[in-house]
Write a structure and sequence with these properties.
By secondary structure, the protein is of the alpha/beta class. It has ten helices and 16 strands. The strands form three sheets. The chain has a nine-stranded mixed beta sheet, with helices on both faces. A five-stranded mixed beta sheet has the order 2-1-3-4-5, sandwiched between helices. A two-stranded antiparallel sheet has the order 7-14.
Length: 347
């Protein structure tokens, strides 16, 4: 069993390489082992491109060894035809006798069907090796399909005395609480999620770009809550460089290149309604970056899965208070003169 865990850890290492690029598909890594040696490996890189098992099999130079090998895969091999053929069929075609799987795919198109197909073909199937880690790897994918909403990450930075911004009347410049290293890490986080969401006040006060310019990777889709359509075309979120979705109560807003408007009712179900719209648009994950009012709505409605809070050493004394958030962090790390506290919601 320890041997299986060693190779499954490698599958997870490989799978993580696809973070931010595989949407709407899950993160999957695969290795093929013959006589205690890895002879092939691969990970899913992008939707529509070959799956991890396909790349692992293709990377094996001597295909004759496949019929005497074990294939490890972090997620149950698919059994349905999508943009690519079923991976379970390919494993059977190459007569790979043993398949070790990290976790079962709860997505209805798979949901144990791949395992059943492999067993019916005579493959020995070993299940749930490092299951918890494999499930955690695809927390976005499973939350999306099981809860019918995106995976929600809350993020904000606050001063040592609990403010997210000072009062600077009529100021056009934003006040940075995070240090340079923390800000770069935030841009890395943005490349890992499909979308980034803020409210009207954050846009009007800070004029953020909501991109990932300080890290290599894809920019997230920008989600803006703008009830009265106050945000003019001069603001960065309307620069058309990245896709932007604006939720508003105003009807007949004019769509333009990369900017779309969603007219919804701003009532007590606002956040749930927004998440339903994003689910329908196949957006699997959202990082919510403010402001306090918007963050508090997600917190109060218990609609969050993870929170990342950067805390500075300096004090502001008077300003905009950070959200009310009484939870115990899972982990705390130091980033120069900042602390990063990470929280998980188990509800």
């Amino acid at each position: 069993m320890i041997e299986h865990e060693i190779y499954m850890k490698r599958c997870l290492q490989l799978a993580k390489n696809g973070l931010g690029t595989t949407y709407p598909n899950p993160l999957v890594g695969s290795v093929i082992v013959f006589n205690g040696k890895i002879i092939g490996e691969g990970w899913h890189k992008k939707a529509g491109e070959p799956h991890a098992e396909v790349l692992a099999i293709n990377s094996v130079k001597n295909k004759e060894l496949l019929s005497k090998s074990t294939i490890y895969v972090s997620l149950e091999p698919c059994s349905h035809f999508g943009k690519t053929p079923p991976c379970a069929n390919l494993i059977i075609e190459h007569k790979i006798p043993k398949v070790v799987i990290g976790c079962i795919d709860s997505f209805s198109e798979v949901a144990g069907k791949g395992i059943e197909k492999l067993k019916q073909a005579g493959c020995e199937v070993i299940l749930n090796v490092l299951e918890e880690a494999c499930l955690r790897m695809n927390k976005r994918f499973f939350t999306f399909h099981n809860k019918k909403r995106p995976y929600i990450i809350l993020k904000w930075a606050e001063s040592a005395d609990g403010f997210i911004a000072p009062f600077i009347p009529n100021s056009k410049t934003s006040f940075a609480i995070s240090n340079d290293y923390s800000r770069q890490l935030v841009h890395k986080y943005r490349t890992e999620e499909q979308a980034i969401l803020v409210g009207t006040t954050t846009v009007l006060n800070d004029n953020p770009s909501l991109d990932a310019r300080d890290w290599f990777g894809q920019h997230p889709t920008r989600i803006i809550i703008d009830k009265s359509n106050k945000i003019s075309d001069e603001f960065n979120v309307k620069n058309k460089k990245n896709p932007t979705i604006i939720f508003t109560e105003q009807e007949n807003c004019v769509h333009s290149i990369n900017i779309a408007y969603e007219c919804i009712q701003f009532d007590t179900h606002l956040i749930s309604n927004i998440l339903t719209h994003l689910f329908e648009k196949n957006i699997q994950s959202v990082i919510v970056e403010g402001g306090t009012f918007t963050l508090q709505q997600f917190i109060d409605n218990h609609l969050w899965d993870e929170a990342r809070v950067f805390i500075a050493e300096n004090k502001i004394t008077e300003g905009v208070k950070s959200p009310k958030f009484n939870f115990i962090p899972e982990k705390t790390i130091k980033i120069k003169n900042n602390q990063l506290k990470t929280y998980l919601n188990y509800d």
